[in-house]
Amino acid sequence: xxxxxxxxxxxxxxxxxxxxxxxxxxxxxxxxxxxxxxxxxxxxxxxxxxxxxxxxxxxxxxxxxxxxxxxxxxxxxxxxxxxxxxxxxxxxxxxxxxxxxxxxxxxxxxxxxxxxxxxxxxxxxxxxxxxxxxxxxxxxxxxxxxxxxxxxxxxxxxxxxxxxxxxxxxxxxxxxxxxxxxxxxxxxxxxxxxxxxxxxxxxxxx
Length: 206
Prior knowledge:
Strand order of the largest sheet: 3-6-7-8-9-10
Distance between the termini: 38 Å
Number of helices: 4
């Protein structure tokens, strides 16, 4: 009973906060409920898209090996990644580009549109992304990187490559270190053993 009371208080506080922010909402919202607040010890991640109600979503399954080892992923905004192995199977929700035109970047070349949330065959789940921002001093000290990883690339790369949450974290942070980030964002990466939250507000720091 105490657990449920804590959970209801948390949800009420989050709801009140969201209502206060609704007028200026311009990105996305993530909610995390830790295992100490649930009766069965599960953790929950949830995501809402506040940016626009005009982006249709498609839930789909990507079969094992959709991306072959050595093939190159091309993102909306110039980021590329060479897959280290045949990609894991995963379910995901993506923006709808069935028209042939990506709603995110407006391009028609074959590429994966923004996959926002999903889980792979290894039990790794990713909730990406919450768009962040930083003041001008931070952006000047560590500028965003053109062609770096965008938030629209995260779920696709991490779910394809990572067999554990920690593997996903290491991959993401190495990408930030070696290639940089095109966008500031927050992302949850979890498996049955642990949950990680990573955010970057500049090009290479997190």
